[in-house]
Amino acid sequence: MSRSPFMDEAFALAREGFGRSSPNPNVGAVLVRDGTIVGRGLHIYSAVKHAEIVALEEAGARARGATLYINLEPCSHHGRTGPCCEALIAAGVSRVVAAMEDPNPLVSGKGFRRLHDAGVAVAIASEYAEQAAQLNEPFVHFIRTGHPLVTLKAAVTLDGKISAPEDNSGWITSERARAHVQTLRHQSDAILTGIGTVLADDPLLTDRTGQERSRPLLRIVVDSTLRIPLTSKMVYGANHDLLIVTTSAAAPDRRQTLLDRGVEVVDFDGVGGRTDLRQVVEYLGEKNYLSLMIESGSKVNWAALDAGIVDKIFFYYAPKILGGSHSLPVVGGIGRQRRKDAIRFHGVKLHSIPPDEFAIEAYLS
Asked: What gap in Å lies between CA 240 and CA 233, rounded to an integer?
């Protein structure tokens, strides 16, 4: 099957759901009759209706005999809504072209079989399969593992440094690169940093795109002894969107003060009095968070990699060199002691950021 402008339109609609569909997948649907689009739809979590239903409502009677182009298999189970495949059958849709099977075991081919059994022709646009999986990468990962997709993000000099030993005013990367970081934040359900970054930079760690979200970006601070200042920007502006991950060694009165200010505090005890990052990922999975971005310093970056919770990296490189043994590397900690034990990556992608910057996206092997 060749590429189709109608499927391309469905993907464009699905991308409009970034940040607005979680914990559901991004889905776009296009109904076509006699070569003309008669209905379009995308899923927005707050609107409840799935993309297929929105497209059917726009098409009305013109849906009968039409072909549906969609990036993900129509659902076949009862959730917040009824099964979309039943709505398609009732509307008289004659053909469904989907880019990929839904990995959710509640669907996973059942939607296709129900449509086929009702006389609806079903086709898989296999040339779109990789693109479809990438578009819903966090959802696919979550369904298969029960954990959010964890991305380690950093802004780095060409010699791998993220911080100078004295003055760190200003930025490593350009405004254009930082704007792209905001798109990653917008597509993330949660963002994590360490107490060291909070004490040094007093960040907000908010989604500054101004675009609609299905739920607030959950800001997480790893702070084993609850050193976070009550005057910090994150605590001051907390609105049930701040989670402090600490240990049982933290002072009870300090914990209660944070709770009184609308900050969630949880204990995840790890080795050596440190927090256990694996428990953080499991906790987020239980809460149906599909994606987590780590924006932190050398110590937390290493702790995350060493704990095995990182699924991919997104490093932004600026045409600069800091040098010096006291400038902090992107990953600190004890590190690997033998070259053959280096943490390996695959699926490396290079993203150009004109005029002189670039980003590396890669997956842990």
From this structure: 14
Asked about 166 being catalytic, the answer comes back as no
| Closest listed residue to residue 32, CA positions, set 24, 40, 21 | 40
Q: Hey, is 119 helix, strand or coil?
A: coil
Which residues contact residue 296 at a Cβ distance below 8 angstroms, ignoring those fewer than 6 apart? 192, 193, 194, 196, 197, 222, 304
Provide CB contacts within 8 A for 241, sequence distance 6+: 216, 217, 218, 219
Per-residue tens of pLDDT for the chain, all 365 residues: 578 999 999 999 999 999 999 999 999 999 999 999 999 999 999 999 999 999 999 999 999 999 999 999 999 877 788 899 999 999 999 999 999 999 988 788 899 999 999 999 999 999 999 999 999 999 999 999 999 999 999 999 999 999 999 988 889 999 999 999 999 999 999 999 999 999 999 999 999 999 999 999 999 999 999 999 999 999 999 999 999 999 999 999 999 999 999 999 999 999 988 999 999 999 999 999 999 999 999 999 999 999 999 999 999 999 999 999 999 999 999 999 999 999 999 999 999 999 999 999 999 99
| Alpha-carbon gap, residue 205 to 210, rounded angstroms | 14
* Single-letter amino acid code for the residue at 285: G
* Distance from the first to the final alpha carbon of the chain: 32
With left for phi above 0 and alpha for psi between -120 and 50, is residue 159 left, alpha or beta? alpha
Contact in structure between 182 and 18 (CB atoms under 8 Å): no
Q: How many CB atoms lie within 10 A of CB 134?
A: 9
Cα atoms found within 13 Å of the Cα of residue 265, Cβ hemisphere only: 25
Is the separation of the CB atoms in 114 and 84 below 8 Å?
Answer: no
Q: Which of 136, 111, 112 is nearest to 123 (CA)?
A: 112
Q: Which of 52, 73, 295, 357 is catalytic?
A: 52
Quick one: 354 exposed, middle or buried, by C-beta within 10 A (0-12, 13-18, 19+)? exposed
